[in-house]
Every structure is written in C-alpha cells, then in structure tokens.
C-alpha cells in the first residue's frame, strides 16, 4: 500500500474509524497526528463494537504498529483507561503502541478551564467535548505546556506544574470563584501515569522514519475533520488542532514527499455536533430521519448530531485545503429509501452566487444553500460489496459527486462491518 493520509472532509464523524480499520489490513503502521480524546472512532468487528478515542483504529489488527504523534494532546488517564479496556477485550496493547515523547499532556486544569470558558459564552458556545482540548493546545502554543517526556524528569515536571498553577489558581480563585488546585496531588497522580505509560513512550519520528526507509506503508489517521480544523474550519467553532492533511506532517514529523495519497472521508450527507454555522442543516423531519437512520449520536459525548444534506461547497473546500487525491464515501445506505435527495452545489449571499466556502463568519451565517435535486432509490445499498450491484440511482449520485468535485471515489462504505466495503482502487501497490 502507498503512504496514505485519511482525513475527515466535513465536521468529523464521517466514519474515519471504520475506514482506517479496513485500510489497516494493507498498511504496516497506523499513525494519528492530532486531537485528543475528543475523537470518537467507532469500529464494528463481527458482533463487537469498539469506540476508540485516542489510540489509532489500527490497534484492532494484530501485528500492526500504532503510533500517537507529537501533534496529539493526551490525557494520560484516558489513554490508560483505553489501553485497559482493550486488553480486557483481548486486544493486544504492548510494544505495538508507541506514544511520542513530544506529545503534550492534558492536565486537570485544562478540562476545568474548558468547562468554565464554555459556560461564559452563552449562545456563542462552541459546544466543546469538555475534555480540555482547547486549553491544552493553548498552553502548547504559549510554551507553557507539559509534554509526555516531562513525566520522566520528576523535578522538572513538579516545577512546571507549580509554575503553571500560580496563574491558573489565581484565575480560579479570583475570576471564576472556584477552588484552587494542589500541585502535589497532581504530581502524585501523574507519576502513577508515568509508570503505566513508560513502555509506550518513544521517539516516534525516528520510528516512522525507519519504517518508511524500510519500505513499510504508513496510514495517517486524522481525527475530527476539515471544517473543525483550527485554520481551515469554521473558526471559532472548531477544535484546536490541525485536522487537515497538513497536520500529519507537523503532527508526526514527516516530510510531505512521503505521502502518496490524501483520502477525504465524506459521509453521503452532512452532520455536525456542537455549535457553529451549518448551511445545509435540516431542522425538520428529514433531518430527524437522517439522525435516526444514521444513528447520529456522538460516540464521545452521546449528543444528538445536527443533520443535513451533502454540501459540495464544503467538499470543494476540503478538496482544496487537503489536496485530496481520492474520496471515500460512507453511510451511503442511510440514503436508501429517500424519494428525492438534495445536494447543495453553491451558496447565495446578498444575491451573489458563491462556489467557494466563505471565510467570514457573518457571510457564512447569511448564506443560503442552493440545491440541485436528484432522484433517490428504493432498493437497498446496505452491505452491497460491488459497485455494479449498487442501486442505479445510488451509482448516479456517486458519479455526480465525483464529477462535481473532480476527484475520484476510491472506496465506498455500505454498512458498519469490515465486509461492507467497495474498493474502486487497489491500494496494494507499493512505492
Ligand atoms: P471525530 O474524530 C465531531 C467538535 C465538538 C465541538 C468542537 C470543539 O470523532 O470525528 P473540542 O472538544 O475539540 O474543543 O470541541 O469540535 N468535535 C468533534 N465533532 N467529531 C469529532 O471527532 C469531534 N471532536 C471535536 O463537538 O463542536
Ligand atoms: Mg466520531
């Protein structure tokens, strides 16, 4: 297999977990490059369902190396819990999981700050997962973050927490009316994490470089999606990391020339969880139907996802900012049985047609989606394993997406399990 980046092309929850699980079969190394335990990647194997938040979905395959890169923010407790849960379910997690020394840690004050900041925002709430993601990345950029490697330099680690708590406790006490935190208690807890994680902590940039030199194939697993990217998403209604393809370079320390393919995962319709603009949102019975049929409830927070039709303006943006070389369409079967299917082809703003996703929030909020309507299909596309066997109108729908975006569809997912997949491209070819 080539070296492939798998990136969400919408607002997350496109089905990246399932796709990565399937592609892992053809890869040697699966590496995540950003985000934290805000992600929720659902993988179904037989009758069993796994929801992964931090560990790459590749872990469910034996003998594949899984890497968590420097671009992640890791809450050690969540990682340890995830490792233990997997082990309980007989999934091996040992030397096959490597965690970057340079990844930043989510500290207890990050989640507290996340909650407080959200509660002050009123109707401008981002609707974060409350996991402390934003504050952890803020500390990283402000150069006051604490990295995984700091766990193994106890004196330095203690000094860093103590220093950080001066400001945090001042804010907690004087601005937010909350109890201050105790450096020693945090130190003791994190020293226990240090022990539990020691086996996995490593120089992941070197590991990946050696793998590439040895001709191994790397699958880069994105979390969240293009429209949640800190630079290219609907700022400030985004997550705090580089979810786009570019994040894979900085988030793991690899050069752009190592990448052969950038595949965008596209749900056959659109969903979004949390606040922020969503031009094709359907706040009616059609949206409700998509939610119920698609099981559109958050894998991390359980929140009902907002649902709407496919938005080609969003996807055009995703093709551009990620340099997508292929599309992966998921949840096609959820559209089975719709009489008519609308697809947004452009936006209208003050009488003008916009084909490119607008950058300014006030413009975006005032945009009206312009739809083209397509005939639906009554036959089932669920569990179909070849393109030819898909309903005729489903094939036409897919062809339309390909043509309008100018990017080929390379994989179609037609259900939850590993077998419900159609490959239109052979990824076996090596470099
Ligand atoms: P996966 O990897 C969908 C959303 C949150 C919120 C915003 C910021 O499963 O696709 P954060 O806690 O990251 O600061 O929240 O981002 N969000 C996601 N939405 N899928 C995800 O991950 C998400 N991770 C964060 O709902 O709107
Ligand atoms: Mg998810």
Describe this structure in words.
The chain has 431 residues and is an alpha/beta fold. 32% of the residues lie in helices and 20% in strands. It is built from 12 helices and 20 strands. The strands form 5 sheets. The chain has a 10-stranded mixed sheet, with helices on both faces. Strands 14, 16, 17 and 18 form a 4-stranded mixed sheet that branches. β3 (41-45) and β4 form a beta hairpin. 6-O-phosphoryl inosine monophosphate binds next to α4.
- The CATH homologous superfamily of the largest domain is named Adenylosuccinate Synthetase, subunit A, domain 1
Number of helices: 12
Biggest β-sheet strands, sense, barrel: 10 strands, mixed
**What is the top-level CATH class of the largest domain?**
Alpha Beta
Topology:
Layout lengths: L3 E5 L7 H9 L4 E4 L8 E5 L2 E5 L12 E4 L4 E2 L1 H13 L8 E4 L3 E2 L2 H12 L13 H9 L12 H22 L7 H15 L3 E2 L1 H10 L4 E4 L24 H5 L10 E7 L2 E3 L12 H10 L11 E3 L1 E2 H11 L3 E5 L9 E10 L2 E3 L6 H6 L1 E8 L16 H14 L3 E5 L7 E3 L8
Parallel strand pairs: 1-10, 1-11, 2-5, 2-10, 5-7, 6-8, 7-9, 11-15, 14-16, 15-19
Antiparallel strand pairs: 3-4, 12-13, 16-17, 16-18, 19-20
Helix pairs in contact: 3-4, 5-6
The structure holds 6-O-phosphoryl inosine monophosphate and magnesium ion (MG).
């Amino acid at each position: 297999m080539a070296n492939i980046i798998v990136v969400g092309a919408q607002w997350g929850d496109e089905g990246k977990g399932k796709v990565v699980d399937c592609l892992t079969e053809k890869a040697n190394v699966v590496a995540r490059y950003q985000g934290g335990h805000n992600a929720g990647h659902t993988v179904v194997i037989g009758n069993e369902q796994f929801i992964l938040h931090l560990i790459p979905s590749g872990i469910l395959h034996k003998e594949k190396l899984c890497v968590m890169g420097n671009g992640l923010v890791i809450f050690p407790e969540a990682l340890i819990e995830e490792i233990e849960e997997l082990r309980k379910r007989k999934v091996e997690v040992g030397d096959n999981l490597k965690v970057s020394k340079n990844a930043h840690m989510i500290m207890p004050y990050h989640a507290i700050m996340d909650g407080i900041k959200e509660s002050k925002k009123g109707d401008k709430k981002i609707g974060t997962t409350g996991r402390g993601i934003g504050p952890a990345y803020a500390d990283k950029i402000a150069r006051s973050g604490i990295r995984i490697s700091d766990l193994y330099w106890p004196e330095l680690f203690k000094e860093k927490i103590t220093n950080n708590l001066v400001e945090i406790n001042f804010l907690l006490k004087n601005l937010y009316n909350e109890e201050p935190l105790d450096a020693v208690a945090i130190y003791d807890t994190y020293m226990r994490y240090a022990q539990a994680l020691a086996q996995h902590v490593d120089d992941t940039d070197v590991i990946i470089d050696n793998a590439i030199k040895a001709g191994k194939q790397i699958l880069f697993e994105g979390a969240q999606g293009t429209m949640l990217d800190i630079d290219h998403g609907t700022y400030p209604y985004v997550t705090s990391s580089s979810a786009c393809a570019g994040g894979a370079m900085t988030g793991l320390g690899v050069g752009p020339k190592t990448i052969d393919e950038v595949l965008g995962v596209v749900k056959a319709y659109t969903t979004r969880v949390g606040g922020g603009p969503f031009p094709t949102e359907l706040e009616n019975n059609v949206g409700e139907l998509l939610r119920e049929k698609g099981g559109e409830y958050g894998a991390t927070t359980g929140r009902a996802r907002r649902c709407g039709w496919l938005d080609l303006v969003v996807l055009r943006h995703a093709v551009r900012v990620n340099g997508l070389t292929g599309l992966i369409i998921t949840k096609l079967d959820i559209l089975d049985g719709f009489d008519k299917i609308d697809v947004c082809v452009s936006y209208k703003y003050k009488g003008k047609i916009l084909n490119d996703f607008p950058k300014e929030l006030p413009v975006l909020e005032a945009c009206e989606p312009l739809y083209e309507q397509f005939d639906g299909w009554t036959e089932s596309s669920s569990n179909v394993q070849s393109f030819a066997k898909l309903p005729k109108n489903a094939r036409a729908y897919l062809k339309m997406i390909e043509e309008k975006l100018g990017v080929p569809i390379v994989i179609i997912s037609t259900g939850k399990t590993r077998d419900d997949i159609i490959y239109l491209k052979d990824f076996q070819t090596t470099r």
